[in-house]
Amino acid sequence: MHEQEELVMRPVEFVATVNQTLEFALSHVVVEGEIANFRISKNKWVYFDVKDDEASVKCFGSVYQLPGPLEDGMLVKINGTPRLHPRFGFSINLRSVRPSGEGSIKKAAALLEAKLTKEGLFDPARKRTLPYPPERIGLITSGESAAYKDFIKVLNARWQGIEILHKDVQVQGEVAPRQIAGAIELFNTHSDYAVDVLVITRGGGSADDLAAFSDEHVTRAVAASRIPTLVAIGHEVDTSLAEQAADQRASTPSNAAELLVPDKRDQRRQLLSSQQELARLLRSLLHAGKTELDRQKRQLFDVLRDKLVVQREALEQRKKLLQAYSPQHVLKRGFAVVRHNGKAARDASKIPGGAELDIQLSKGRFTARKGEVRQSRIGES
Fold first, then answer.
1. Does this model's pTM top 0.70?
2. Quick one: which of 9, 130, 263, 376 has the most CB atoms within 10 Å?
């Protein structure tokens, strides 16, 4: 019987074989433990150990895979791929990192909150007023959730005619932050998804359930949104960082709908009240207008009457003046009008002797012939 040949590998072959074995047997793993020896190199690469009381595992990845600031002692769940590096030994290459346990989640949120507060992401001066009511709403939540159903139900009960563009995402778990941040980016960058306001919502849950809404990528996406944002998480105890970064927060999905649109029943009551008030105001204006019109009519009548009296008096004066200058009035005083050939005679010397004359008196007229007329000088009798 021959002894089995000893398998001798070079180090590089051993590393390749181990990695092939790990890739086949453990393509990815989830490990939960406390962070130790946490450090960041060149603002890009992150190194730390995940340990418990009996063992420690090295981890390596990019800062872009972190949910936010981390520090030693925090309990985390890491998702990654086991690898044996040719020079640096065994480690887990990170896919994602999530704080685990209420204490660590709160600690991670507090660290990130301090960081983002310093950057001004939560500054009230950045907050924008939401359109009221909006015409198109971008809704980011799980389509199977009670939050989705509650929001739609309350919105439709209060107001109609609003178009809702829904982006279905997971709202908890490892992929939730990436999906939520991606949905926010989608609405902000694609014209087909142009909306007036973004609503990011979910129901309540444990600190671990709600961790996605305190993730750095989600929080920054909310703060950077060109579209006004409303974040509604169904809990009242703690406020997530996404809520702090939003233009407005709501206590529940139903409350989000209440903040966005008026209640049509209240609007009907207000319209009826306004209609009644407008009718009362119109009646009052009509009454005031009629009263003023009557006053102006009386005033106009008085003015016209006074003017008529003045004009009548002026007419009488002119009448008397005309009468004084009237030829008939002169004739009544004993004068006569002598006409020759139809024209009033003014100079007797120019009328030939024997000419027929027309004599007009105050009452009646007659004809005569001119005889010899002796010229009288002034002063002669």
1. no
2. 130
